[in-house]
Every structure is written in C-alpha cells, then in structure tokens.
C-alpha cells in the first residue's frame, strides 16, 4: 500500500513551535492549497490542509517561515480521533516527512519608492558584441 501526499501551498498563519513532554519539537501548520480549476463564479478556491511537522522540520519551519510563506510538504495522510463532549471527533492531517521552503509572501513597503532598474553597461572595446559580460560569481550560503 502507498500512503504519500505532496502539497504546495501558503501557510495560513505563523508557525508556533511546541515541544512534547519528552522534549520533541513539533509544529502544526495549515496550508492553503489552490485548486486547479475555477468555481461557477470564476474564482479559484483553496483547500486548507492541516500538516504536523516534527523535530528539525518543525524547528526550521518555525524559524524561517511566516504567514503567507510558500512551502512544499511531502508526507503521509493520517487520521486520528478523540471524544469531545460525548461526540467522536475525527481529524485528518498530513504528517510531514519533508518540507521545502519555496518562497515568502511578497512584502509591500509603501514608505520608500522602489529603485529603478540599472541599465546594463555597453560592451567595452575588448569585448565582442556577441559575448556576454563577465560577472563576478558569489557563493550564497544555503540554510539547512
């Protein structure tokens, strides 16, 4: 049997890191996942999926993600239940086994004008018109 789920969506609120009684980090996030079709009113609807992340995935998500962050979660579907006020309550969630941080919510800052793009310099005499200018390459550290 296969039980594997892959979702890409936006976090609906800031993740909150918690720890279990034995000290294991955990966070629950809800992903808003857009459907790939429009409803009768022409609007794109979304499904809201509860995802539970454990250990390092929980810590990193709480540290680096905020409401509106785009993430990809791969995991397994899990259903649990409990009794509340004499009624059985069922919860279906994704237990995240892997999370990818795909982008942040665009930040709009109206206090300062956006810089205008700088035009590319004209080719120098030593450079042929068909060659591309050489750029200094920088290494960008990747977070774990």
UniProtKB/TrEMBL annotation:
<feature type="compositionally biased region" description="Basic and acidic residues">
    <location>
        <begin position="132"/>
        <end position="144"/>
    </location>
</feature>
<feature type="region of interest" description="Disordered">
    <location>
        <begin position="102"/>
        <end position="144"/>
    </location>
</feature>
<dbReference type="GO" id="GO:0006260">
    <property type="term" value="P:DNA replication"/>
</dbReference>
<dbReference type="InterPro" id="IPR000424">
    <property type="entry name" value="Primosome_PriB/ssb"/>
</dbReference>
<dbReference type="GO" id="GO:0003697">
    <property type="term" value="F:single-stranded DNA binding"/>
</dbReference>
<keyword id="KW-0238">DNA-binding</keyword>
<protein>
    <recommendedName>
        <fullName>Single-stranded DNA-binding protein</fullName>
    </recommendedName>
</protein>
<dbReference type="Pfam" id="PF00436">
    <property type="entry name" value="SSB"/>
</dbReference>
<dbReference type="GO" id="GO:0009295">
    <property type="term" value="C:nucleoid"/>
</dbReference>
<dbReference type="InterPro" id="IPR012340">
    <property type="entry name" value="NA-bd_OB-fold"/>
</dbReference>
<dbReference type="InterPro" id="IPR011344">
    <property type="entry name" value="ssDNA-bd"/>
</dbReference>
<comment type="subunit">
    <text>Homotetramer.</text>
</comment>
